Amino acid sequence: MTNLLWLCLVLWISTATLFTTSSAMPPPNPIKCNDINSNCQLSNSYSVWGDRQTCHAPNIVYPTTEEQLRQELANANKNNLKVKIVTKFSHTIPKLACPSNSKNSLFISTEKYDSTIDINMERLTVTTDGGVGLRKLIDTIEKAGLSLVASTYWEGVTVAGVISTGAHGSSWWGKGGAIHDHVIGLNLIVPVNENEGYAKIIKLTPQDPLFNAAKVSLGLLGIISKVTFQMEPAFKRSITLNFTNDSGIEDEFMEHARKNEFGDIQWYPSRQIAVYRYDNRVPLNTPGDALNDFLGFQSNPILLSRSVRAAEKGFENTRNVGGKCTMASFFVAYKKLIANGLKNNKLIFTGYPVVGHQGKMQSSGSCLYSSSIDITSTCAWDPTINGLFFYESTAIFPSSKFGNFIRDVKKLRDLVKPENMCGVDIYNGFLFRFIKASDAYLGQGEDSVVVDFNYYRASDALTPRFNQDIWEEIEQMAFLKYGAKPHWAKNRNVAFVDVQKKYPKFNKFVAAMVQLDPKNMFSSEWSDEILFGKQEDFKGDGCALEGMCICSEDRHCSPSKGYFCKPGLVYQQAHVCRFSSISTS
């Protein structure tokens, strides 16, 4: 792309995003059926699974009450069907929601099971249907003068889905940033024998032995039908973003987390910029009625999303480092200009601090909501528009190991030159968030730092990516050298290698599976691949290109296109696909 064309695109982006509407064409439903509720296919929000294979079941049902949920599970148990629970959002990237590839399987959707939200003002609790969306829950409790302390940054999730995958916000304060650690009760529908009616509802509280298994259960123990959260009286938050140099970030992250209740850090390694988010609660009478409308979750003009993808794809194909870095520089500068979507008066950013009610500051996702007027905008990754297409890697580190991980990434940056890391800065760089130690068997056992980074994914599975060896080395550095745990709802398959060894109470979770689901109704080869970190013994040609394997031979990369299996540069035990004129494997 010529400099003139790129300048035109930059100007268009800045104009288009500044005046982006808050409503747009909604993302497509993740379930598509050939007939009414039959011959159904499930996709994730990107419409492409890690292995690019389809996920289907012969039938789907839409219960609307807890009793109907129980009846559907009972019918499935009676007829020896495999079952997977699906939601209206489907934002889990691994194939946890895919049933076994057989004719004896069923999707049970919670899309229409979302009517009940019961608030107990005396106990400061709320009990909600598992299918209720996070935004609906937040808005309801805020109207009652209460706040949910922890939530995901992205609000396109359901209550049951968000706790069962260990999703989180950011905090080392109080009960921490993981939402499941604010759960004080839940109902689980499980299969039973014929004498008990084939399915029953069990009510779990923190005193029950199964509670810590059920909080983060990946949909493998039963159907989460009701969830009870501990609330707090409503409060506001005050946020200031400090864009500064990244020197010392490896030594400062702990102090930042301790001083700021909801603080996080965004690191753009190619730009050598760190963004410290000073984010704390303030009294309700503090002036301010702001909105957190995170830039990445706003609706974008369809033509804009396509153009950004086309530009990045062009730079990939031509191995154009300069083009990628120009994109990264612009996007980082623009985020600073608009405070990454913080809006003082719910319209535009006018200055720091940005103060608003907890319910408007804790989570965002304005691109989710439809409008009869605007059908030219949507979420930038909407799979129907050929927009952004990327990987999401998320690693959970013990806080004691995280500083050394950052030091290693900086060493790698210095070796390969910073401009070769521009690809990650086109998205959100590295996002550091903080979660406390959890009692959940599949939760983190110690205070931890969660690192998210997104990066380009090729349209074709066998197309190697520019500088992909850098991101593969960082990925292996995180999960293998430092033993980071993978986020259950994100990541490429290689992140889950030997995952069961990283959880001291993993066997207790497996014991709960055996107790509650002895017929393995909720398990499949796909969920076993994730939960047990199973990798296929057979490694096919090109399997490392999309993270389906770690390369051990050149053919696992793309030797015909100049990509060979090589050792890492800093973490030399890594095996990565690197562009080279000569194979030295």
UniProtKB/TrEMBL annotation:
It comes from the Eukaryota. The keyword Oxidoreductase applies. SUPFAM superfamilies: FAD-binding/transporter-associated domain-like. One of its GO terms (molecular function) is L-gulonolactone oxidase activity. InterPro entries: ALO_C, FAD-bd_PCMH, FAD-bd_PCMH-like_sf, FAD-bd_PCMH_sub2, FAD-linked_Oxidoreductases_BP, GULLO2-like_C, GULO_Plant, Oxid_FAD_bind_N. Residues 1-24 form the signal peptide. GO terms for cellular component: membrane. PROSITE patterns: FAD_PCMH. It is an enzyme of class 1 (oxidoreductase). Keywords: Ascorbate biosynthesis, Oxidoreductase, Signal. The keyword Cytoplasm does not apply. Residues 53-234 form the FAD-binding PCMH-type domain. Its EC number is 1.1.3.8. GO terms for biological process: L-ascorbic acid biosynthetic process. Pathway: Cofactor biosynthesis; L-ascorbate biosynthesis. It catalyses: L-gulono-1,4-lactone + O2 = L-ascorbate + H2O2 + H(+). Belongs to the oxygen-dependent FAD-linked oxidoreductase family. This is L-gulonolactone oxidase. It comes from Solanum commersonii.
